[in-house]
């Protein structure tokens, strides 16, 4: 017995911020750490909170909105943020890829500004860690707005109404590019598309979605595998995936996230955009290569494109025609924001911009 | 009637004891907030995504290190599955000199209860458990009364730890009791409740439970090119203590053609081999603390075969062929001949309606034993339909109807059929 106890003993050892006042309900900026929590349930968006370094206030938001719609932030005064991130196109543009100053074509489609406040990282390749950083990036991009940050600040400093507005908001007698970024970011944090039929359904209104849209929701979170990337309240994991999207447009190749991280796993990977209001912004994917929602679902249905670094999440789905139709209905109508003041933001006419 | 009673009792016992374990894991669905159809063509059968989730050690494929662990209070790692069944069973057995003996039984039963727990402990380290508590012994049960028999208190059907991505995708290790990876066609993820894949556990007296989960250690790899392997060293006695010092080895290899993973899209073809030894003598009455005996004079047994899984839209055709060899020491019918047999099965599954709510499947099994044991010849046909209710989070409720016909033996064959209805519940 003693021997057995010894044996058994040996084996045991072996085994052993605050919400924005007024304006739209706005979400907190998801921290980069949130990338680690994994899939979250679909549901209504939480309120936005602004970073402590850039608290929201109405004056700043108004200033940011003026800057957002002001083409004078570009070198030739023709391109504003709203040119490529237009409310009329679901806060993106008509595509396929974006057009900057002097008719230059960008290599990628403009990602939507709506709900960008929830993205842990900005741009298709995640090169900006905040909206503030993102907001000033295109200004100095030679293909997009074609300015330099210094020239942009000089331009704005020559507009008395802006000088007054910046002084009122930031309390400084001069304008900095960081302030420009902060103001635009403050405005972008109010561009939150809520109150979709899905949101109403998620809050208990069973009639908010049609039977076909409900079927689409079920497929979205099941056989369609959409939520393997488009999860959480913003219908986006904020991560980067290689879908095998065929390269089209002016770029011969596009390494996506790899250009930032130099991690071979990221080669050809691009950020998951929100699926909210996706019906309002065709064409699709970072190249704009798929014209309609149905096209993009068919692209996924065959398992994406061919690529040596194809995301292992990508598998053929086996969706039937009926299931494709249901998915389109859910995304197009079920995720279409009903808060018209954001979905159809009229913008600011040139003659009403600060002088 | 006595024989029929025994047959039916044994059949019920077989159903109760071999009911497929719940490998649809509501705990994973709760953690990820995904619908079950994310990982299952229809529960419990895995689709391509689910297979990759398993390949990656219960992590989202390619997303390792970015998920909740079992310690997250929002991701309870516990799940249950049970399957109340109703069966109508008929059997006809020739009785020499007295004409056929016929019998019918009708009964309610529960095809097992599984307690499941599983999940991620740390990046690339996960664990998986299935505990199957005791089922009451059928009154007329005449089968084994041992570690596999119904008098057991329960069985740790699965209890293993997985270390994933040790060398990227090329080396993953699983230790404990587990279902071998890239098992030709998983008996535990079959839609069929009343009709098993007969060939897996067929054989001479070697009692090699090829279809059972095994205790041991396994290395696996899955590559971008579609090649997968599972290489294991196991006791070879399923859930029973091993009785010899020789360990068994197996190698399963699989190649996927086209996009997907061969489960629900793409095409898969595999080869498998298992080589083991079983004792024929016991030197002494020594029993280890783990219940092992010191058997010796080990004789070989092996299984070899191939399988395919072919997909077209939502149709999946799976077929397997196996050749078995048990040393003559295990051939009770003809002790001077090795026990060589072959057989296999072909199964056609069809999934339809939104999120594959309706499934229909047909299965044909055949087993050809050596000529000395013709009475063990098996041919069986089975068909089923399953309908999944609702779209409830992390809950599966499937209504199941199945018919199976089985003929055993050649001359004087025993013919059985069972019509069963079941409610398959997991949450």
Summarize the structure in words.
The complex is a heterodimer of chains A (355) and B (427). Chain A is mainly α. Chain A folds into two domains: 4-16 and 194-334, Cytochrome c-like domain (Cytochrome Bc1 Complex, Chain D, domain 2, Orthogonal Bundle); 58-192, Cytochrome Bc1 Complex, Chain D, domain 2 (Orthogonal Bundle), CATH 1.10.760.10. Chain A is built from 13 helices and two strands, in the order αααααααααβαβααα. Chain A has a two-stranded antiparallel sheet with strand order 1-2. In chain A, α2 crosses α7 (177-188) and α9 (211-220) crosses α12 (321-334). The N and C termini of chain A lie far apart (96 Å). By secondary structure, chain B is mainly beta. In chain B, strands 3-4-5-6-7-8-9-10-11-14-15-16-17-18-19-20 form a 16-stranded antiparallel barrel. Chain B has a two-stranded antiparallel sheet with strand order 1-2. In chain B, a hairpin with a 5-residue loop joins β12 (281-287) and β13. The two termini of chain B are 41 Å apart. The model of chain B is unreliable at 1-23 (pLDDT under 50). At the A-B interface, α1, α9 and α12 of A face α3 of B.
Residues in helix, % of chain B: under 10%
Taking the alpha carbons of the first and last residues of chain B, their distance comes to 41 Å
Main β sheet profile of chain B: 16 strands, antiparallel, barrel
- What's the mean pLDDT score of chain B? 86
Structural class of chain A: mainly alpha
- H/E series of chain B, N to C? HHEEHEEEEEEEEEEEEEEEEEE
H/E element sequence of chain A? HHHHHHHHHEHEHHH
In percent terms, what proportion of residues of chain A is strand?
Answer: under 5%
